[in-house]
Model the fold of this input.
Amino acid sequence: MIKRVLAVVVAAGIAGGGYYAWSGGHLDGLLGKKPAETATARGRGRGQGPVPVTVARAESRSVPVTIETIGQMQPYATVSVKSRVDGQVMEVFFRDGQTVTKGDPLFRIDPRSFQAKVNEAEANMARDRAQLSNARSDLGRYTQLSKSGYSSQQKFDQARATVEALEAALKANAATLERARLDLGYTRIDAPIEGRVGSVLVDPGNLVKANDGLTLVVINQLKPIYVSFAVPEQHLGEIKARMKAGPVEVEIYAPGKATDRVRGKVVFINNAVDATTGTIQIKAAIANEDEKLISGQFVRVSLVLHEIPEAVVVPLPAVQSGQNGSFVYVVDDQKRATLRDVTVGPEAGSVVVIEKGLAAGETVVTEGQMRLRPNARVATQDDRATPAVAGGRRGKDGAGAKGEKRRKRERPQS
Done:
């Protein structure tokens, strides 16, 4: 008997579980509700509401057409400092990476041997001047004696030749003295330009030779500084035309620092197109007063070609690609999304120009397109914000006025 009762209970449980699974986890049939009503209620609860999307309005504005490319910073001038005389480096007057101005001392080479040569040349000059003075006196005497017939013409000619030889020797010694003084001056090496020095490549105590290829230090002029970049050759004509009309400006910024932009002006266009890449090299000068930019640094370069007046623009995420080209979803006043083919123009930062297919003021979907279909109902970010505010006032006993009435009834009377 007990086994029969247990069998009936198990059978009833299995039947109830099967019905629960068949009804999708609802017990509406057991509670007396009709299947049609249950299906309708489930339809209202799942998959029949508007699609949540984010929208933006198409705007009309003047849009600059720019070339975006990668550039590299180059020094305005570079000098590799080398010794012009042989000798030992005695002193270094700067630190690695220091900024120097033109004329600042950099190195001092042992000047003693060069000072000795200067002294020797000066002594030779003094000797030659004394000899020349005596020879000129002799020439004057022989001139008078020759006119009076007391001296031969040969003596006069010899005195004149001696004077001319000593004058030539004096000029040669003067040149020797000038060269010795130059070499002595070369023992102090000064900065030829204003800029920032690199690392010291020769320390005090080392011997250097003139013109042996050894670089003592490299100076880069960074104020101003060049940015070198390449643009496609098809833009060359337009860039040259703009340069004839006035200065062509560029904007540069380091990668990841788009808000920290600096301006410069195009100062050079190369005289040949690179046949391998189809581009032409351009340089722009940047003031770089704060020296934030350094040689060799890679930057983003933006060059404005021209402007499109009253262009219709939308955010970049609004434009989607399909089999027939680009399209956007346009939301009408009934909050329904319509697919519309558009012709896309150039990009300008975070927006893109729509050349055809869209008018300024229309609303387009910028997020949520994957869940849309033509003529689908949508709920914008503003629509979703309104129920959220109302939901914040809902209590656990109900919503709105009904909930408030219920709470009043349950409130004890004082």
Q: What stands out?
A: Residues 54-63+309-387 form a domain with the conserved putative lor/sdh protein from methanococcus maripaludis s2 fold fold (CATH 2.40.420.20).
